[in-house]
Amino acid sequence: ARPPLPAPPRLVCLAPAAPPTEGAASVPGLVRASVRVSLNAGAAGTVTASSAPFWYYPHPRLDALVGDAAGALDAAGGEALNVTGSGLAALAGADAAFADLVRVRFGALDAPAAILAGDAAVAVLTPVGAAGSAEVRVSLNGGADYTPSALNATFVGLHAPVLVDARFGPQATTLRLEFDSQGTDRAGQTGVFACAAVLDNATVDALRGSGPAEPACYWEDDSVLVAYLDVDTAAAAGMSVGVRAGTLLPRGAPAPGAGGSLYSTAAAAVDADFPCGVGEGLADLCPAPAALVSGPTQLSSCGAGAASVAGLSGEELVLDASASSRGGVRAPSYAWRVDPTTTDFAATLNARLAQLPGNTSTLRLADLEGTTFTFLLQVTSFLGRASPVERWHVTRAPTPAPVVTLTAPSPLVVAPSEGAFISASATIAPCYAGGVEAVTFAWALVEARDTASGAVLASGADADMGPALAGALAAASASLVIGPFALEGGVTYDLRCSAAMADDPSAASETMLTVRAVAQPVFLALGSTRREASSAQALVIDASASFDPNAPAASARAGLALAATVAPALAGGAASLAAFVDGLVIILPAGALAAGTTYVIEVTLSKAGLASATETVTVAAVEAAVPEVTVTTDFVVKRSPDRNLRLVGAARAAGGGGGARDFAYAWTSSDPGVLDHRLTPEGRRVLVVAPSGLAAGAEYVFTLRAESTVDGAAASASVRVVMNRPPFGGRVTVDPEEGQALSQLFAVAASGWTDDDQDDLPLTYAFARARQTGTSTVTALTADASLGQADVYLPEGAWAIFAEVADAYGATARASAQALATPAELDAARDAGVREELSRLAFEAKTNQFFQLQGGYAAALAGAGAGARRLQLLAGAEPGGGRRRRAQEEAANGTNATAEAGVPTLDALRKTTMLALLQQAQVNNAPSRSGTELEATALAALLAEAGDVEAEAQWRALEALEETVRRAAEEPSPAAVDAALEGAAALYGVSARLLAPGTAHAAAAYDARAQLEDRSSAKATLDRLLRFTLRGLVAFAAGDRLPGEAAATFDLEGAFTLRLERLEGADLASGATLAVTTSAGAHLGSLALPADDGLRSALGLGEEDAMSLHLVAFGADYFSRLDPLAGASAALPLAVLAADEAGAALADGADLGATGAS
Asked: Out of 76, 134, 983, 1128, which could bridge 159 as a Cys pair, Cβ 3.0 to 4.6 Å?
């Protein structure tokens, strides 16, 4: 028996085999049984005295279809037939009323009418049917089960599509509508589209619910329509769905407008009891939620009442269950309790918990009494399925220890190829009375075990965990960065994070995190999925780019095995291609293919212990000698519609000769409109398509035709590309919607987000802001995290708060909410409070809030201090605690020069202090795109105000920038590149202003003979910045561009302009002139390529070898402004850097002969 269904109370049971008969049967084989119920596993005394009858009947037999049209039934249905056989009245023999339960099914569809006509016949009206054969089956019990038969019916023609099933998807985040096997024309829709194009208004309204967004759908195939659901949907068990009239035709039907009665008007209902369907053995296919808790496992010794005694704010325990799997798209309910057997003051605490509303995903409890607590959480989905109870133990430390919190749920599920980033932060105990309020962090492996068997693989401090994981754990940082392949698929790791006060290591606490590494299937890289090939030539199918995504590149192909079959058989009769497999390459000899035949080759890649991957290649064999044409992709596991699509074609003459320049190339697409968004010119073998032309969830076929310019021979190859669908279903909230800048913490949350493919999990979340009015850039608020909520500071203004929710492969969804940050008056007292808060955030490793508050504070001070007198930065650096205490003392004693007028400004002391704190925060910042943007934004805000400076401050700012760019280089996405370049622009800009001739400090600080390591010289700092820009920043900014793709240009506030480009060896003989222009159109310089192969040969590049070319043009007066000894000067010669495909330097400007502004 399954658990009880929703009201009214019912049980659903799987019937056992028929018991012995309880009496003489009126029909041979008919058995009457009595059903009784126990709610206690059948224990004695728990079985009901009352019972209900239940009948078992012998299988009926079907023999024939009798009627005028029995030989060929109209697919539109409605024809009268008799279905003949025997035993059809077996159940009616027990009770005449059972005759009404007879049903007849043709294929997957029930006959609309079925009337029992004695033991040997049932009269029926035929249902619609797909052209072809359909099994005929009969049910005597109202469709509870159908008896298989050998009788088949044949349908001819087309019919209006019929809905045969409507149910929630396996994760209850989608609604799946299945039409009959005839298939549909998909109402002409591709990719993800508005559901209203297919479904009627009532269905669309139910899907939308209370949300503002139009429901989105996509076709899984010609018979299955999938509707995305979101948290506001009103979709529910028992709902009805219907097709919009005049939209949906059968596959192959006449064009719209001539469809007539073939347009579908189908409707269906979602089962009220099993809305996700029923599996074998009455398995409920609806997902059960899983409760996941994140939070501290230890509290400080402060205890209840300490706050009032010490005059400090009280301690708060925060347990976050927002990462729990919801068991569906709509918000679940959360039931929090404590275990009374292991919890102090349990009765009082349970009374508090019982008052919480059901949507309390984050538990906040202040001033807890006691020392031991066991919290219990059960999550119940919107479909009524409940999770197992999760237990979370919290104890109170014997010392005033900091409380540790992690930005990840436990367990955290990761892919070995992705690694993991886990950030810890600490809240200093309110009763801590030490001197320096700084926290140190440490990580350790407690245990590693096989996920499937539970066998312990490693444990304790001396565990053999591999150098990569050991190195990550050894880093003394609040941030744990586990690199790719440091974790092994199929292994679960228990990690411990400890935090202690820097000046009192005994004041320490810890928390635990479980990380589960889940192995990914092998990746089969075939490239072309359809090709033309000559029967007189060998055919090569190259899968050598395939890999195991769970292993590093050096061993990613170890253990891979390739197998293939072909249909129809080869000319020699072989259907298996085992004899033609050589490693990861299949080579079919000349003559193996018969001209005029199209072959389907099924290729399977496998590796022991991992899921295999299978793809098909269609080969059309022709008699003529044709070029060998192939198309390859960038071979990513899944393609995000947020990124450029890159395809590379290749062609070889039939005899193997010729090069890339011996062919004319032309691309086509199954969706011609996609090519309107190409970023490469026509006629190139490389095709790059911008995200603006790619639809999430869409499937495209791109075909490259190559025609020889020597003999005119031509052939084509195609590749199928499926775009990943981003997460969906969620929303963004901000609480409160209005608060004061620099002091109010706004709780932002992205809830309800999910993905219809479990391989795309886990999701990551990042928040950003942009002003609601005018043109405003989107600025990061938080780094990427596994939890979809954060407390953030906002600068003054009306803001749109964005959530970016990304799946494991980078497909990203975005949503927004609004917030208003009212002005904050920065008097001396509030200024001191903000600086104290910044120091606390930096040393508690709360990096997101630090960067948010620091950026807003710097901007506020810059505005308040306009026109205020400038101060020199203090030379030298003090420990963070010393700077912090000195700043506090000056604020308290009134000795800060900027406080004399009563208006704080962004003076030298504050700038120096905040640069030091920023570097402290950098240590713990997330190595991600959004983390880099957040860091660069805070640095730019700090550097934006001009003033005379010591070189030490410039050096410190450069160190911060280099660290920012180093992080960006680890994830060189366009946004990360932009953020890093913007950070460089800010530092170049402030360098130009602060060291310009005429300022009091510039001439003394600018030493033309300074060595690169001289921290005291502004010239040394600038030299280091230039070298870093040319050899570091520029090198990664080009990203993964392909030869022929339009050059990228970055204009850094007039300081210099970058042109980043990828070329092929053949391009070096094009005679083209590559120009560098600013965003305003000003020409800065150019490079003329030769019209012969001399340069390509000098660099040792083949025609199809790739290289990167970076042109860096400096502004005409940039160095004259920076060097007071130089006076007016022309621009620097155009700097030219060339690198091969692996990034190794090929040449610099001198080698390429670039001079002046030529």
From this structure: 76
Angle at 465 between CA 459 and CA 471, to 5 degrees: 120
Is the peptide bond preceding residue 332 cis, with omega within 30 degrees of 0?
no
Sign of CA dihedral 1015, 1020, 1021, 1026: negative
Nearest to 182 by CA among 102, 80, 262: 262
797, 705 contact by CB (below 8 A)? no
pLDDT in tens, 126-171: 998 888 899 999 999 999 889 999 999 999 999 999 999 999 999 8
- Strand ranges, E, within 275-344: 298-299, 316-320, 333-338
d(CA 948, CA 989): 14
- pTM > 0.90: yes or no: no
CA nearest 927: which of 378, 389, 254, 477? 477
Q: Are 196 and 214 in contact (CB under 8 A)?
A: yes
CB 756 within 8 A of CB 173: yes
Q: In 3D, which of 1134, 1140, 1126 has the Cα closest to residue 1152?
A: 1134
Report the alpha-carbon distance of residue 435 to residue 1087 in Å, rounded.
61
User: Could you give the CA distance from residue 312 to residue 840 in angstroms, rounded to a whole number?
Assistant: 15
Q: What does the block give as tokens for 302?
A: 């402060």
DSSP state of 464: -
**What's the CA gap between 309 and 367, in Å, rounded?**
12
The angle that helices 880-893 and 908-923 make with each other, rounded to 10 degrees, is: 150
Q: What is the pLDDT of residues 662-687, one digit of tens each?
A: 899 999 998 888 999 998 888 888 89
| DSSP reduced 3-state for 614 | strand
Sign of CA dihedral 1078, 948, 1033, 481: negative
Which contacts of 650-655 are long-range, i.e. CB under 8 A and separated by 24 or more positions? Answer: 650/685, 650/1104, 651/627, 651/685, 651/706, 651/708, 651/715, 652/627, 652/628, 653/627, 653/708, 653/710, 653/711, 653/713, 654/534, 654/537, 654/625, 654/626, 654/627, 654/628, 654/713, 655/625
C-beta of residue 381 within 8 angstroms of C-beta of residue 326: yes
Residue with tokens 């002391």: 909
Give the other-Cβ count within 10 Å of 757's Cβ: 14
Residue 313, burial from CB neighbour count under 10 angstroms (0-12, 13-18, 19+): exposed
